[in-house]
Amino acid sequence: MLHFRYSSLINAPVEDVWNFHERSDILQLLTPPWQPVEIIRREGGLDVGAITEFRLWLGPIPVQWLAVHTECDCAERSGGANRYRLFTDEQKQGPMESWVHRHQFSAEQGQTRLTDAISYSLPGGWLAENLLAWWVNSRLEDMFRYRHEVTKRECENK
Fold it and tell me: Are 44 and 52 in contact, with CB atoms under 8 Å apart?
């Protein structure tokens, strides 16, 4: 199992950053323009059971990526200081052997610490992971840097 983590501090309340992630156009906003990705559908918002479907292009080959939200800790389910804490999506079909992505939101001195934590396995086992983990993590680093910059810009300039 491989791990990737990207975290940044956003000068906005947790509720604002969470609400940004609930926008109907969030996938269009957070998908880097250089990525060969088509958004097929998004259903259910951030709640458990929500579905996101993409088509990735690996060269000329289309690959379906279907993710389902398996965890959501938000205002409707919790009260007090930990409202809008996290949501998790898991790949049900796609290019990875496994993929679990936790989106974490925490208050930090009036700001929001946004953390994306991913545990994944590549098809091909240990050999593929030893050969390709550095490349996958560098692509994830580029993508999440972009996503966090967009989130920061949108949430801080309200």
Answer: no
Distance, CA of 152 to CA of 17 (rounded, Å): 9
Q: What is the CATH number of the domain that holds 146?
A: 3.30.530.20
Could you tell me the residue range of the domain that residue 49 belongs to? 2-156
Average pLDDT over residues 151-157: 95
The H-or-E segment that residue 109 falls in is: none
128: pLDDT strictly greater than 60: yes
Who contacts 68 (Cβ-Cβ below 8 Å, separation ≥6)? 49, 50, 51, 52, 89, 90, 92
How confident is residue 58, by pLDDT bands cut at 50, 70 and 90?
confident
pTM: 0.91
Nearest alpha-carbon partner for 30 in 147, 112, 158: 147
Structural domain count of the chain: 1
Pick the closest to residue 120 from 107, 129, 108 (CA basis): 129
Average pLDDT of the chain to the nearest whole number: 92
Q: Quick one: which of 141, 122, 124, 149 has its CA closest to 4?
A: 141
